[in-house]
Amino acid sequence: MGTVFLLSNDGQLPVHDLEFVVHINKIECCNGFHWGNADMVKPNENTDILLPSHKFPFPLKLLKLEGATAISADITFTIEFRPDFSPAFLPRWHESFRYATEQDDKGEYIWIPRAN
User: What residues are paired with 26 via a beta bridge?
Assistant: First the structure.
């Protein structure tokens, strides 16, 4: 189970030093195995700057254990960043976004935004 999420900067100023953390709230596998409450830091997916009106692709592949393919997932992205006007010594800002999977009428899994 995986997809590419797009992070967009809809503001008027660039943001700097973006860092992504994916918190796995819960994953359910087809063999009945459940797990969650774990963080996946994505250091290779970080970026130095995101300009206004630009998008940054964020690929996410949830694990596929041998014989245990994920059938549902509930995750929270946390994005830390420094606004353009903010000095580097101040704490970074952060935003969180929660998504969960559901099956559509065709049996495909889709990501649905959820309240944090």
Answer: 74
